[in-house]
TrEMBL record:
Signal peptide: none annotated. The keyword DNA damage applies. DNA binds at H91, R110, R151. One of its GO terms (molecular function) is class I DNA-(apurinic or apyrimidinic site) endonuclease activity. Binds 1 zinc ion per subunit. Residues 2-113 form the Formamidopyrimidine-DNA glycosylase catalytic domain. Its EC number is 3.2.2.23, 4.2.99.18. Belongs to the FPG family. This is Formamidopyrimidine-DNA glycosylase. It comes from the Bacteria. Monomer. It comes from Amphritea balenae. GO terms for biological process: base-excision repair. Residues 236-270 form the FPG-type domain.
DNA sequence: AAAGACACCTGGGAGC
DNA sequence: TGCTCCCAGGTGTCTT
């Protein structure tokens, strides 16, 4: 489920329970995720102290003195903290057991997630080519215009490309294009600077608002049902094909773009 | 170089 | 009930 706001919400939820803790064990029940979990990961983290928990794009980075554990939640992954002795359910693939007696548990039915290692001072191939963070100043109208130049790809697929900007998944791509009044199929290179500027602002606005809401509805990452407190974003278009536009009441259109469900208002988006 | 198809997985819901 | 088919919040890699 995770798009960037969910990943950031997860980061904020787990960070207080991880920072400063020492790893006492790593239990891997299913090593076959998107990429195999490295055989030597236990050796890397055992008895090591977690210095900080950061996020880069949709990757969570648990920083250790010698490097970082990189966790990606894929399509269906989630993380939560449990008592280390709590029995694992079917899709609970990995436990990072902490000196506190708790474990950071990864559950991921579809196994598109990943748990990898990046040595200190190196840049993992999966992180090296990522575009800027959407909420940073380096993601701006000038940058996006430069990227879009002469590109014929549909703008929706373009902003979902993590080499252009990280963190814009299918739901938010739909929502953000609606807010910006841009048709999802419009060629990236044929959009005016003024409209790209609006798009940049909408991306920042929608994502930061979603993160805020995630923060306010944040539940227990400890115990309970283990479900992170995913926010309830009121969606304008995603999942609303054939329903009326919230602005003009025109029937929203649903198409497929790059094998992904795409919903837009034919009246509001040009 | 850029764009599109395909790949990796499981589960849930629709339709028969 | 049970089967088949399609869909799902990601994204790297292969093919044109």
């Amino acid at each position: 489920m995770p798009e960037l706001p969910e990943v950031e919400t997860t980061r904020r939820g787990i960070e207080p329970y991880l920072t400063g803790e020492t790893v006492v064990d790593l239990v891997v029940r299913q090593p076959k995720l998107r990429w195999p979990i490295p055989d030597d990961l236990l050796l890397k983290v055992k008895d090591q102290r977690i210095a900080s928990v950061e996020r880069r794009g949709k990757y969570l980075l648990l920083h250790f003195p010698a490097g970082a554990v990189m966790i990606h939640l894929g399509m269906s992954g989630s993380l939560y903290l449990v008592a280390a002795e709590q029995p694992a359910a079917y899709h609970d693939h990995v436990d990072l057991v902490l000196s506190s007696g708790r474990a950071l548990r990864l559950t991921d039915p579809r196994r598109f997630g990943s748990v990898l290692w990046q040595d200190k001072g190196t840049s993992h191939a999966l992180l090296a080519k990522l575009g800027p963070e959407p909420l940073s100043d380096s993601f701006n109208a000038i940058y996006l215009t430069q990227c879009c130049k002469a590109r014929k790809q549909a703008i929706k697929q373009f902003i979902m490309d993590s080499h252009v900007v990280v963190g814009v998944g299918n739901i938010y791509a739909n929502e953000v294009l609606f807010s910006a009044g841009i048709h999802p199929k419009r060629q990236a290179g044929k959009i005016s600077v003024a409209r790209l500027s609006i798009l940049v602002e909408e991306i920042k606005k929608v994502l930061s608002r979603a993160i805020e809401q995630g923060g306010t509805t944040l539940k227990d990452f400890v115990g309970g049902d283990g479900k992170p407190g995913y926010f309830k974003q009121e969606l304008q278009v995603y999942g609303r094909g054939d329903q009326p536009c919230t602005v003009c009441e025109t029937t929203l259109k649903e198409i497929r773009l790059g094998q992904r469900s795409t919903v837009y208002c034919p009246e509001c988006q040009r």
